[in-house]
Design brief:
This protein is of the alpha/beta class and 356 residues long. The chain has a domain of 239 residues: Rossmann fold, CATH 3.40.50.1820. 37% of the residues lie in helices and 17% in strands. It contains eleven helices and eight strands. Strand 7, helix 9 and strand 8 form a beta-alpha-beta unit. Helix 3 packs across helix 4. The longest helix has 26 residues. The N terminus is likely disordered.
Length: 356
């Protein structure tokens, strides 16, 4: 009988310890474990390294538990806390391309900058790969702000973001949602919800056309589940057809040539998962754009096929701290990497004015 009582007591104690562990685990579910990422240590950017800034790789975790990889740039020979900017884009690109160039240029001008790969992309974590999400990608910007707000060298009252191409629209959406973001720059921006729902230049803006696209992607989901893998959309078309629209030729000139090609960039290689477009069709950015109190600068070339996104989004913004800067003669991809055209000084001045 003694043995039975002792055994029951031990069992009861074990159950109690296990229950307490489960309770503690449940209490800490907000603390997602960091993924073990493989980060390339050598310089593998498509732009040369500056001798004016220090560079290091960092990681941080977003609200969905995905570990993001980033390049942090910091101006050399500086003291005290500095203003900071998180940078991402273009849509389908990686931090070794345009966003890294912007980040390094702004670091040369006195900012701590963080160029990050979005969730499921590049060196960042998350499975499956090459998935886009209007919600998770907006969160990625706020997660970058989380990291900067907790960095000892950052002036936490002076944090901004910058998005390029599709990430320009995502940046503005993030700023609407996150008032910690004091100033936002959207360069050569897309509204990814509009282009997916309505097609380019709103040429597919009907219920019938949207339903046809929904049906095609829903059918692809069935096929993907059966095959056990996601079909990829193919990235920038290659080989380039002779009759391709000019903006497709511009994309090709960046992503498919040594100018901008990078092996981790979906735009340079095999593209997004086909079904990634689906949530963007049922999600509208900028519904509350008129409530955004903090500063926004939209930079766009007047020869860009995407210029209408910038103009129409700017029209939704309210307040005298909203600006639009038009670059005469610039096409969409000129603002990816053409440093003689990209107005880095004006962008830096905008941040200095509105992050004070």
């Amino acid at each position: 009988m003694k043995k039975i009582i002792i055994a029951l007591t031990l069992l009861s104690g074990a159950i109690s310890v296990k229950a307490e562990a489960v309770m503690n685990q449940n209490a800490n579910t907000s603390l997602a474990p960091a993924e073990q990422l493989e980060l390339t240590q050598e310089w593998d950017k498509v732009f040369p390294k500056s001798d004016m800034v220090d560079h290091k790789k960092v990681t941080f975790i977003n609200r969905y538990g995905i570990t993001l990889a980033a390049d942090m740039y910091k101006p050399k020979r500086t003291t005290g806390k500095l203003p900071a900017i998180a940078v991402s884009g273009p849509f389908g690109a990686v931090k070794e391309q345009s966003s890294g160039l912007y980040a390094q240029q702004l670091a040369e001008r006195g900012f701590i900058t963080l160029a990050f790969d979005p969730s499921f992309t590049g060196e960042s974590g998350g499975m499956p790969r090459r998935v886009a999400s209007p919600d998770i990608n907006t969160e990625d910007f706020s997660a970058a702000v989380d990291y900067l707000m907790n960095s000892e060298d950052v002036d936490t009252g002076k944090v901004g973001i910058l998005g390029i191409c599709g990430w320009g629209g995502i940046a503005i959406q993030a700023a609407i949602n996150d008032p910690r973001i004091k100033a936002t720059v959207a360069s050569t921006m897309y509204d990814m919800t509009r282009v997916n729902a309505n097609g380019y230049f709103d040429s597919e803006n009907s219920a019938g056309q949207r339903n046809a696209k929904r049906a095609a992607m829903a059918a692809q989901r069935t096929v993907d589940f059966h095959s056990g893998e996601y079909k990829r959309a193919g990235g920038v078309i290659d080989p380039l057809p002779e009759d391709a629209p000019q903006f497709v030729k511009d994309y090709y000139a960046y992503y498919k040539t040594p100018r901008g090609y990078h092996v981790r960039s979906g735009n340079s290689t095999d593209g997004w998962n086909v079904t990634s477009n689906l949530p963007f069709m049922n999600f509208k950015f900028f519904e509350y754009a008129d409530e955004l109190e903090n500063a926004v600068l939209i930079v766009h070339g007047d020869k860009a096929h995407s210029y209408y996104f910038g103009k129409d989004t700017f029209a939704k913004l309210k307040g005298d701290n909203k600006q639009m800067l038009t670059i005469k003669g610039a096409n969409h991809c000129d603002l990816y990497d053409q440093s003689d055209i990209i107005p880095f000084d004006e962008i830096a001045d905008f941040y200095r004015e509105y992050m004070n």
